[in-house]
Amino acid sequence: MPFLSDTLARVSPSPTVAVSQKAMELKAAGHDVIGLGAGEPDFDTPDNIKAAAIAAIEAGKTKYTAVDGIPEVKQAICAKFKRENGLDYSPSQVAVSTGGKQVLYNALLATLNPGDEVIIPAPYWVSYPDMVRLGGGEPVIVETTLEDGFRISPEALEAAITPKTKWFIFNSPSNPTGAGYGHNQLKALTDVLMRHPHVWVMTDDMYEHLAYDGFQFCTPAQVEAGLYDRTLTVNGVSKSYAMTGWRIGYAAGPEHLIAAMRKLQSQSTTNPCSISQWATVEALNGPQEFLAERNEAFRKRRDLVVSGLNACEGITCAIPEGAFYVYPSIAGCIGKTSAGGTLIDTDEAFATALLEEHGVAVVFGAAFGLSPYFRVSYATSDEALSEACRRIQTFCAGLS
Ligand SMILES: Cc1ncc(COP(=O)(O)O)c(C=O)c1O
Fold it and tell me: Which protein residues touch ligand 1 with a CB less than 6 Å away?
């Protein structure tokens, strides 16, 4: 009898974690490594949020809470959805979990049966397909291209839908491309979904606040009210509020789905951290001005990285609408050999040679389901980004 479960064989270890691990090993061995792999803001959690957490500890708010969130945080989430997205939800339609990751995982595990299909546009956030497989479902990957801005077309969505489709996972602005869907682009997708009433929408809005050049964020249930009863709107404080370590994500949707997610969570992790929930109340109800200030810093970095990468021979980089990632194509580098003698036949070979020969850690595109590309996270200092671009230029110039 095998010791490990068959379920485990359906998932692969996170490639983004593997890249960080390798970069750390090289650093520990004394190499000068610039990490552009991390999926988190380099900014600190704002002081008012930290103070709310300290106050919660001092007030003894350190015990178990209601499984899917204290009433105060649910109220703050309902107010956020109303204020920012024009969506009406009551507290019984809201679930709070240990990070956006647990929200998505709960929702998939609570709804998937063997053979159920989940449509995922590629490139995708690394965890979606594995979470679907863990839940016993089948990921249906629909590739997008640099030329169409890494946005799934209505035709491609329509073609991917079958009687077995349970969910369409939507992520805007996207990890790993930063691509965002404007109102009309999203409306074209929701029009397709209106023709297929058995398909539910799981919208991952984690990067909502990280948008540049006047890009107007919108979310499916806001664009098409007809989808409200079959949409799970997922969000969290990790990225916008620089709170990745606090582990709070949340979702709103139909009560019966939220109840199913709560049931699952009650038998796994119980409530998310009580102190982090109080910090989230402050994050959502407190001052929001810092978001615009930080976005201005992110926008400058995006522009710096996009122009630095487009100056590299063989690389083409689009200007994305949001998040803190860019996803350049290396089509012009494939088939060449690096100065260090590595044949660049895949984006993984490109990323490995770049790390080993020039000390720049990026994540290769195959990890996100679309090659030949790589992902750069520009949530790091201007100096590190300029130096990284200089090294990538040298690396590309050395390809022959
Ligand atoms: C698109 C996307 N969704 C969800 C998550 C998970 O967020 P959290 O850290 O809150 O679990 C991430 C984190 O990288 C992400 O990029």
Answer: 39, 99-101, 125, 171, 175, 204, 206, 236, 238, 244, 249
